[in-house]
Amino acid sequence: MPELPEVETTRRGIAPYIEGCEIREVIVRQPRLRTPVPDDLADTLVGQRIGTLGRRAKYLLMPVGDRTLLWHLGMSGSLRVARLGDMPRKHDHVDLVVEDGVILRYHDPRRFGFVDWLQGAPLEDPRLARLGPEPLSPDFDGERLYRLSRKRRIAVKPFLMDNTVVVGVGNIYASEALFLAGIDPRRAAGRISRERYERLAEAAREVLASAITQGGTTLRDFVSGTGEPGYFAQRLNVYGRQEAPCRRCGEPLRLVTLGQRASVFCPHCQR
Ligand SMILES: [Zn+2]
């Protein structure tokens, strides 16, 4: 599933090919995504120029003329740059054809992603308005985690994955950040000290920033008529490694379910 680093990598990968370009044609092969592709998409987009691509949480914001398109990649979506003449493959649902024969092509086998107009002023859209701060922004820190968690009995892992607390810390990054910070994912959020939350916020920033840096090495994959954008395989310490030896102490990692999500941790290193 595309997580925040993949969405940011997508933004950086496609931006140089489409920003400032005029849209010449819109091709919708499959309008039934998570929400239907807006009927007026082609009429509104053709002849308009694409502005500077933005991102908020896992949404891509694409200003076009005086409106903004919101893209979400869902579970299996990807956006890549193709060229006129590159034949669409199965699950290539939407094409934006821009100048110079460049095509922005949306691919999504499971169709949980969508493209839709942003409603109202930027960031006042109901889908965006209640989101917490970006994890790499100064608005996210240990103090915020400490303050919002007081008297909360929820386990710290689902607390960290709550989009109103901070956006974009999905299962992989929450698991890895808790390992780096040495915190047991089952611990009640309200019973963790300010100092440990400082370490956790720092660890979350570190794992996300490093994933974005690694994603940068795959940027060329966004320009290809055939391949998928290379969602990068990272070296993970705990996620997906249940029963494997902890990289720090050698003890077997343990799997528990928290907030309906699989959670792997080291019972020895994480307290
Ligand atoms: Zn360990």
Task: Provide structural commentary.
The protein has helices spanning 4-18, 41-45, 126-129, 142-149, 156-160, 171-181, 194-216, and strands at residues 23-28, 54-56, 59-64, 67-72, 78-83, 92-98, 102-107, 114-117, 254-258, 261-265. The protein has 271 residues and is α+β, with helices and mostly antiparallel strands. A four-stranded antiparallel beta sheet has the order 1-6-7-5. It is elongated, with a radius of gyration of 20 Å. The two termini are 29 Å apart. The model has no long low-confidence stretch (mean pLDDT 92). The chain binds zinc ion. Zinc ion (ZN) binds at residues 246, 248-249, 251, 266, 268-269.
* Principal-axis shape: elongated
Number of strands: 10
Radius of gyration: 20 Å
What is the helix fraction of residues, given as a range? 25-40%
Strand order of the largest sheet: 1-6-7-5
- The percent range for strand residues is 15-25%
Number of helices: 7
Q: Which parts are unreliable, with pLDDT below 50 for 5 consecutive residues or more?
A: none
Distance between the termini: 29 Å
Average pLDDT taken over every residue: 92
**Structural class based on helices, strands and sheet pairing:** alpha+beta
Bound molecules: zinc ion
- Largest sheet composition: 4 strands, antiparallel
Encode the helix/strand succession as letters. HEHEEEEEEEHHHHHEE
Write out key terms for the chains shown.
271 residues, 10 strands, 4-stranded antiparallel β-sheet, alpha+beta, binds zinc ion
